[in-house]
Amino acid sequence: MSGTWILACFVCLSLAVSGQVSNDTRAFPVGGTATLPCTGVPYDGATKHWEKNPVIPIKFLVVIQTPLGQSSYGDPFYDETNIEAAGLTGRFRVTEDLMTATITGVRATDDGDYRCASGPSQIIHKFVAYKLDSVGIQPSGPVTGYVGGTFDVTCTASRDSKPTPSFNWTKQGDSSFTATGATLRISSLTMNHAGTYVCTAYHAYARDTASVQLTVSEGPNVTPVPPTDMNYCSGAVAGAAVGCFFGGLLVGGAAVFLFLRSRTAKNGGKKDVGNFADRQYENVPHPNQRVTSQRPGSGSDEYEVPMETIQPPQPSDDYQELRPAVYQSLQKH
User: Fold this and answer.
1) Cα–Cα dist 328/281, whole Å
2) Structural domain ending residue among the three candidates 187, 217, 247
3) What are 5-59's pLDDT values in tens digits?
4) I want to staple 201 with a disulfide (CB 3.0 to 4.6 A). Which of 128, 165, 175, 227 is the partner?
């Protein structure tokens, strides 16, 4: 019966509130602790309560009241059903007079309006749970760029950041440099672009920074890849083979040329016709010349032309035929 009376009174109070009203926004980091004051809302001697996202009928989280026949309020009464529905089980507590409410282990789902009311007075806090961490730059650096090249880096924050952050860029020691957006890109690098660049990630309730150092050097923006041992050996062998081949051709050609030139010089500018001392000449009858001979035991004599050796360079009307030295030796015997 008493519970029904309390609920009826809350409905009446919620409809009749027309006194002081105060609204403000309070932001708290996810994982932290939130404290909500009930400043400016004095106890009216009947009831006082906290609720989340006010509705009719009232779904109070906690309430204090003065029992009939007593002059002071009793202990706070927590409605665990409504607390569970609000996702605050085990995390919501208030002081004895309800002047302060505390939420531990803040979650993103704790967002909403929290109302403290008593009689004609109330205060509503717009609760915001925020998160901003894990701010970094990719690549993390230090980064080396080349004159004429491009410097390209991206600033990031955790995906569950709340609300979504924005980004801007500055350069240490250069107040004139500013850029916006998550990605910083500088084209046609010069030596003056070297330095430390700072990214700031921010939203309405928090900000965080990260930095990267850029070094600018003269030279190509592509580093040549050194050859592997296998490629080096293969190239060396192939080059040596080709070099040896052409070198052999040159040396061989030079040797043949010098040999032929030497022989020509020894022969008085004439082609070598051999050594006459090693050659044997003999008279050979002309094919049309008649030769007579005497046949033994025939009783008749026939003319016979004896063969004789003629040494060069004596001229002869006969044909001369070159014989090997072995035949010359046989004729002497």
Assistant:
1) 9
2) 217
3) 444 344 344 434 444 556 789 999 999 999 999 999 999 999 999 999 999 899 9
4) 165
**Single-letter residue type at 34:** A
Q: For residue 37, what are its two tokens?
A: 């004051």
**H or E stretch at 244:** helix 229-266
Our measurement of the distance from residue 105's CA atom to the centroid of its chain's CA atoms, rounded to an integer in Å, reads 40
Q: Are residues 239 and 265 in the same domain?
A: yes
Among 130, 156, 179, which residue terminates a domain? Answer: 130
In the structure encoding, which two tokens stand for residue 129, read together? 């749970």
- 211 vs 293, residue with greater confidence: 211
User: What value does the mean pLDDT take over residues 268-296?
Assistant: 49
Domain with 152 in it: what CATH number?
2.60.40.10
Tokens 């404290």 sit on residue: 35
Q: State which residues form the domain around 256.
A: 226-272
- Whether residue 102 sits in one domain with residue 187: no
DSSP assignment of 17-83 equals --S-EEEEEEEEETTS-EEEE-TT----SSEEEEEES--SS--EEEEEE--TT-SS--S-EE-HHHH
pLDDT score at 146: 96
Strand partners, 29: 130
Is residue 244 located within the same domain as residue 175? no
Q: Are 27 and 110 contacting, i.e. CB atoms less than 8 angstroms apart?
A: no
Q: Over 90: is that where the pLDDT of 93 sits?
A: yes
Number of domains in the chain: 4
CA distance linking residue 135 with residue 208, whole number of Å: 7
Q: Indicate if 24 and 126 belong to the same structural domain.
A: yes
Q: What is the pLDDT of residue 318?
A: 47
